[in-house]
Amino acid sequence: MKASITKGLGQGFVVEEVELAAPIGHEVRVQVKASGLCHSDLSIATFIGGDFPVVLGHEVAGVVTEVGPLVTQVKAGDHVVGSLIQFCGACVNCLSGRTYICLHPEATLRAPGEGPRLSCQGVPVAQGMGMGGFAQEVLVHENQLAVVPDEMPWAPAALIGCGVLTGAGAVLNSANVQHGETVVVIGAGGVGLNAVSGARLAGAGTIIVTDIEDGKLEHAKAFGATHVVNSRGTDPVAAVRDITCAGADHVFDFVGARPVTAQGLQMLGKGGGLYLIGAAAMDAGVDVSTFAVLSGSQKVQGVYMGSSNLKRDVPYYASMYLQGRMNLDDLVSKEIGLADIETGYESLKDGTTARVVITDLS
Predict the structure, then answer these.
(1) Torsion of CA 224, 354, 155, 74, to 10 degrees
(2) Per-residue pLDDT tens for 47-106?
């Protein structure tokens, strides 16, 4: 099969022939129909690093073609969405429903001595986040897959596995936003737009989106923002406080730059929460005044993958989309081929581009 391989830090994405092993244990073979481009994969390929060579890509939608002998949750012919959430299902966190912070995610991978899932000319090839979705097929543990209705379109389905889980999940799961509450979304990129969708599903009364690009703010309106603020020319803290009067109940920071995060903290009203999702740099963070947080009964919380249970949440978002209650179509700004990953990432620098999805796997 063909796959896009990253052979080393900064060496880009190159399509080559790769051998995929037969499924064993709980493994599932999936024919990829769509694979989203996420900045996390680009970061691994360009500056974070990891095991090389590697097939990256973790936002996958496709059809199950073969299952291992221990698989019970999916069958051949099922339409599935893959996620980078790797969970064992047996640790204390998994058993309490917090699969997104599983203590033994390595349980979804092959044990030493079982041979690699992927290889190229006899050399083992790593799978990014247990998935390796920049390929015609993937071999993945069944715990990383969720079944969706057959009528779900492939491109928006692929985005559910990461961007939608993270953005909407931050609102619905991590913050548990309630009907009528005030939400601020900082950063109207692909993930932030899903937070807007999540706020609509939660019944938030006011949904304010801040960004420095007008194109992204126009996107936010299409997803349900009630107010937008261009923070390049307007003080976003003053604007939010003017709109809300008493400050926001929930602020979601999808940018992760220190000055921006500090502004998010200043936007909070009494009892409000600041949720940290984005991290623009290794020194991202915020200085917190203990007195101010105590007197305002406020909290600052890190959010990973929207505190999501993928087996529950992926089918839910697919259902909301099919009912016309969640906008996923406008997330898909561009569809590309497997050989066009680098140009696809380049196009994401354009403020009018929300997400790019590989749909031509030929």
Answers:
(1) -80
(2) 999 999 999 999 999 999 999 999 999 999 999 999 999 999 999 999 999 999 999 999
Structure tokens at 13: 């994405």
Which residues make beta-bridge pairs with 230? 211
Q: CB burial class (10 A; 0-12, 13-18, 19+) of residue 96?
A: exposed
Tell me how far apart the alpha carbons of residues 54 and 50 are, in angstroms, rounded to a whole number.
Answer: 8
Nearest CA to 283 out of 311, 259, 264, 307 is that of 259
User: Distance between CA 353 and CA 215 in Å, rounded?
Assistant: 9
Q: How far apart are CA 244 and CA 347, in angstroms?
A: 35
CATH numeric code, 167-304: 3.40.50.720
Structure tokens at 35: 């694979």
**Bridge partners, residue 35, by sequence:** 60, 358
Under DSSP, the state recorded for 39 is H
Residue range 2-147+328-360 in CATH 3.90.180.10 = yes
Degrees to nearest 5, angle at CA 20 with 14 and 22:
170
- Name the percent of the chain lying above pLDDT 70: 100
**How far is it, in rounded angstroms, from Cα 317 to Cα 323?**
10
> What is the pTM (predicted TM-score) of this model?
0.96
Alpha carbon of 277 to those of 30, 162, 225, 249, 261: distances in Å? 30, 12, 19, 17, 10
Q: Say which residues have a Cβ less than 8 Å from residue 87's Cβ, sequence separation at least 6.
A: 94, 99, 100, 102, 105, 107, 108, 143
The residue extents of the domains of the chain are: 2-147+328-360, 167-304
Region label for 283, one of left (φ > 0), alpha (ψ between -120 and 50) or beta (otherwise): alpha
SS (H, E, C) 101-137: HCCCHHHHCCCCCCCCCEEECCEEEEEHHHCCCCECE
Q: Is the pLDDT of residue 347 over 80?
A: yes
Given a cut of 90, whether residue 281 has pLDDT beyond it is no
